TrEMBL record:
The keyword Ribonucleoprotein does not apply. GO terms for molecular function: alcohol dehydrogenase (NADP+) activity; zinc ion binding. Residues 12-341 form the Enoyl reductase (ER) domain. PROSITE patterns: ADH_ZINC. InterPro entries: ADH-like_C, ADH-like_N, ADH_Zn_CS, CAD-like, ER, GroES-like_sf, NAD(P)-bd_dom_sf. Its cofactor is Zn(2+). Belongs to the zinc-containing alcohol dehydrogenase family. The lineage of its organism: Bacteria, Pseudomonadati, Pseudomonadota, Alphaproteobacteria, Hyphomicrobiales. This is Uncharacterized zinc-type alcohol dehydrogenase-like protein. Pfam families: ADH_N, ADH_zinc_N. Keywords: Metal-binding, Oxidoreductase, Zinc.
Amino acid sequence: MKSFGYAAHSVGSPLEPFSFERRDLRDNDVAMDILYCGVCHSDLHYVKDDWAKTVYPCVPGHEIIGRVTEVGSGVSKHKVGDIVAVGCMVDSCQECDQCKKDHEQYCREGWTGTYNAPDRQTGDLTQGGYSNNLIAREEFVLTVPDGLDISKAAPLLCAGITTYSPLREWNVGPGSRVGVVGMGGLGHMAIKLAHAMGAIVTVISRSPDKQKDAEALGAHNFLVSKDADQMAAYANGFDLIIDTVPVKHDVNPYLPLLDIDGTLCLVGQIGPLEELTTPFMIRGRRRVAGSIIGGIKETQECLDFCARFGIHPEVEMINIQDINTAYERLERSDVHYRFVIDMKSLQA
Ligand SMILES: [Zn+2]
Ligand SMILES: [Zn+2]
């Protein structure tokens, strides 16, 4: 299938228009026109080869909303015209214990990324959603429920599920005390989702000037982490802290904020942290954990949950031609809170 999008061609080069081929439709495949694609911080990491695994040219994008244009003969889940979504994964082994538990994100063989990953059958490199169309096997194509505004829903496919999954895993519900560190694409979704689940949500931030925005997103409390008195007052005050900071940082100041058996879950930084010290972990069975996206079943649950509660990411719509400027702004954290590319602009 002929495809057209924007790709990075080498380390540090800007994204540029790029024509390429996608695989032909298989029996279990769904083809779609892409309507919207969110801009994730990992896209930027891939473009810059921060994780030393980028194969160029690379078409990023794994927060995809599309309309089905064609389905393979064996497809039963979707039909032409359906509004669908694809997140970070387009395949996994489907056989291992984790896949069988609907945890494809922990597939023993590793999941196939929506971009920059070898296709499990041909080995051809997958290419992502900054493009006009996509093909993926039906199991990895999600249903966009009525009630979601499709122009805003794309970030649910990565930022949304990345925070939804740990909130569910640690049984957040009415009265749970949830802290959120970092208030970007992931953090703002953590606030909205935890609030909708009935939790008491506190944003933990260095800068007091973010308090208004935090409250507007649904936070009940605001804790300034530079203020030692405030930090002391919150000792043992959280069941779960979702840490969305995407760079190397120090988590030690947050550990005394956890109650006994509390968990700090890292979802942002894939890489080193400042050195961990253990006294608060050992003297309170406090845990430092991590979590990545969510399984397909759970991602569908996240979409359905957001439709039911009217939860949408806060997005800034851009044209594909503005993507390089958007990346510069993303690096400065200058976005409230997620860029979404309107793929109509690709035709321009
Ligand atoms: Zn992402
Ligand atoms: Zn598997």
